[in-house]
Structures are given as structure tokens and as C-alpha cells.
Amino acid sequence: MADRRTRGSDLSRTTAARASAIAEQLHHECSILLELYRKKESFTADVTVADGRLVSVPPPSSQLDTRDKLWRLHSALLQCRSLLERAIAKEEEELGGGKKGDYETQRKMVKDRLSLLLINTGELLKAVDGTAVLTPNLEGLELDGPTILFELKLWVYRIFREVDYWTKTAITTLQGLPSVIAKERVRTTRVRSTRSARR
């Protein structure tokens, strides 16, 4: 029995480390994508985009347990993927597919890596909670996007920045998880041991 708990804890630590490494790679790829997009659209450093998050999740709190932190992160990443998919479709629809270059290749790489990160955070959530992953409500997301060309370009850029923001948040959250998961496993084991000793 103890061996099974140890394997489960090791699996969670391994999954958290893998997810963290994927998030770090995604962050690097997002940085490249943002740079390629700025060059493609001739955006200068002083281009301003609207403040505020596009993704809607509960605010961070030190009171959140591991499950809630993971759910918050997973929910945000799911919303990011929906926004990213819509931005790609809208961009191709409004601006034309054109020839595939570095920008399009990088954009696809970011989308694929984000999907991989979602799979891993889903596995972590399942390991901590033991239930299927909840799908967040996408109501209220700006999935349609603007119709004026320049506003569309800013909207796409803002989505790329949102993915970058949540990728950085994922790195921070995931790097803090292995010790938290291990502590929760120990606490659960102690509770079970105490209950067994009482019988």
C-alpha cells in the first residue's frame, strides 16, 4: 500500500516537472511568436493594447489549495487555447492564409505546445482530485474579435500576450507544486493511518 502511494506521489512530481518544462518551452516559443508578429505587422515598441485580462478565472489567492490552483490554471489555459484557435481562424479568414513562413510555423508550434501543456495539467488535476477535469465556461470570452483590420491585428496580438502571461503563471504555479503534492500525500497518509489506528 505504501509503495502505491509512493508511486502516485512520484508520478505527480514527474508530471508536475514535465508540465513545468513544457510551460518553460512554451514561454520561450511565445516570446518568439510575439516578436515575429510585431515584425510581421510592423508594430513599434510603443504600440498600446487594451489593459486587462481576456481570460476570466478567480483571482489568485494564498488560500487556494493545490486542486483549486490547478483548476484555475487549467481553466485559464483552456480559455487561452480557445482564444488562440479563434485568433488563428480569424486571421486566416480576414487576412488570408498566404504562404506559410516562420510566423505561421511558430504560431502552430505555440498552439500545439499549449495543447500538450493542457494534457499535462489535466493529468495533474486528475492525480490531485481523482475526478475528471471540469471544462470552464467560455461565455464572455471575446471569441468573435473585431472587424476593423487594425483592431483585429491588435486583438490577435493581445491574445498572444495573454497566452504568454498564462504561460508565465503556469511556470510559477507548476514549480511550486511538487512539494505541495508531496505534503498533501503525507497529510492524507497520516489521516488514513490515524483512522486505521483508531479501529
Number of discrete domains: 1
CATH class: Mainly Alpha
What portion of residues is helical? over 70%
The oligomerization state is single chain
Indicate the overall shape: elongated
Give start-end ranges of low-pLDDT stretches. Answer: 1-8
Topology:
Elements: H1 2-40, H2 66-95, H3 102-129, H4 149-175, H5 177-198
Helix pairs in contact: 1-3, 1-4, 1-5, 2-3, 2-4
Q: What would a concise description of this structure say?
A:
The protein has 199 residues and is mostly helical. It is built from five helices and no strands.
Question: What would your notes on this structure say?
Answer:
The chain has 199 residues and is mainly α. The chain has a single domain, classed as Up-down Bundle (Growth Hormone, Chain: A). The protein has five helices and no strands. α1 (2-40) runs antiparallel to α3 and α2 (66-95) runs antiparallel to α4. It is elongated, with a radius of gyration of 20 Å. The two termini are 18 Å apart. The model is unreliable at 1-8 (pLDDT under 50).
Note the main attributes of this structure.
199 residues; mainly alpha; Growth Hormone, Chain: A; 5 helices; 0% strand; disordered N terminus
